[in-house]
Design brief:
With 343 residues, the chain is of the alpha/beta class. The protein contains 13 helices and ten strands. The relative contact order is 0.13. The chain binds 5-azanyl-4-oxidanylidene-pentanoic acid (FVT).
């Protein structure tokens, strides 16, 4: 047994002591490598046709907003320094059909929303989702074959091109195809260029995994039906969560086809993909911290099992550290408020 005396006199001869830089808050600040800035954040917002704002049960702090409330929210976000919003429509089920016809309506809700936002807050960048799932009665991201057993790729891409051009016409800054059809980035780029929208950027949901973390969002926009009503699952177009190489390959295809942003979705469970894509590509990289990531922090904090603010901040920092330039997050507004209050 060692004598207590010996322990007291024990000294390690270390060439480096990393704890030296952790001793005080100011030293830790000097050594900090990664920061989440307001400028990095995109706020996803849900728009509905009419009625008062409605809370989304599983996503505290998120509301379905009517057009007027949406514009007001955008004005507040812009004032806080948030650079962009991503708009998702929650449509009345009566507007949905098998083919998602409403997506081609030049007066559809999301296009009116874009025009209203760009008129009120021109400096705020607006991102729109290019996918058919908000518009289809079956909730799939594309057009089904006659048997309802397959989402037809090329027919769907043609519809997406039409949607993207309508969105560009409405004044959107960034179109964001979230459907995972093959070849859609190149086709959308060509359609936008052909229509004269050479400066409309494309944010590709390039590594979008078939994830259980989307559950609360599907409730929020009323598209939860998809997996239930058809035998077909979204895993026939979204990526297998088990695959890393495939994610990089698909994203590199999107880069080659002209994507201005690549995206990894979800974020927190896919930090390895974010890092690998950051190293593989020079294109601006986005990560989507999805509804389930948001909901689980809220739920655990409500139970008293996690510290809400610390877990929230750590979750975002981890996404930045993994290599994301931009984060789509439902926490965007409160992070911007916190940064403002700190000065
Ligand atoms: N196309 C947008 C989404 O699917 C959002 C998913 C989520 O937040 O869970």
């Amino acid at each position: 047994m060692e004598s207590p005396n010996k322990i007291e006199n024990f000294k390690l001869d270390l060439p480096r002591r990393p704890r030296r830089m952790r001793r005080t808050a100011s030293l830790r600040g000097l050594a900090q490598e990664t920061f989440v800035r307001c400028e990095d954040l995109i706020a996803p917002l849900i728009v509905k046709e009419s009625g008062e704002k409605e809370p989304v049960g599983s996503m505290p702090g998120l509301f379905r907003l009517n057009l007027e409330e949406l514009v007001r929210e955008c004005e507040e976000l812009a004032k806080l320094g948030i650079p962009a919003v991503a708009i998702f429509p929650s449509l009345d089920p009566s507007l949905k059909d098998e083919k998602g016809t409403e997506a081609g309506n030049p007066e559809t809700l999301v296009l009116r929303a874009v025009r209203a936002i760009k008129k009120a807050v021109p400096s705020l960048s607006v991102v729109t989702d290019v996918a058919l799932d908000p518009y289809t009665s079956h909730g799939h991201d594309g057009v089904l074959n006659d048997e309802g057993s397959y989402v037809m790729n090329d027919e769907t891409v043609a519809r997406l091109c039409e949607m993207a051009v309508l969105q560009a016409e409405a004044g959107v800054d960034i179109v964001a195809p979230s459907d995972m059809m093959d070849g859609r980035i190149g086709a959308i780029r060509a359609a936008l260029d052909e229509a004269g929208y050479i400066d409309t950027a494309i944010m590709s949901y390039s590594a979008k995994f078939a994830s259980a973390y989307y559950g609360p969002f599907r409730e929020a926009v009323g598209s939860a039906k998809a997996a239930g009503t058809t035998l077909l699952g979204k895993e026939t177009y979204q990526m297998n969560p088990a695959n890393r190489r495939e994610a990089i390959m698909d994203a590199m295809m999107d880069e080659d086809e002209g994507a201005d942003f690549l995206m990894v979705k979800p974020a927190g469970a896919y930090l390895d993909i974010i890092r690998e894509l950051r190293d593989a590509s020079q294109v601006t990289l986005a990560a989507y911290q999805v509804s389930g990531e948001y909901a689980q922090i809220h739920a655990a904090a409500k139970l008293g099992w996690l510290d809400y603010e610390k877990t929230r901040d750590e979750s975002l920092l981890a996404i930045k550290r993994a290599g994301a330039d931009v984060i789509l997050t439902y926490f965007a507004k409160e992070i911007a408020q916190k940064l403002r209050d700190r000065g």
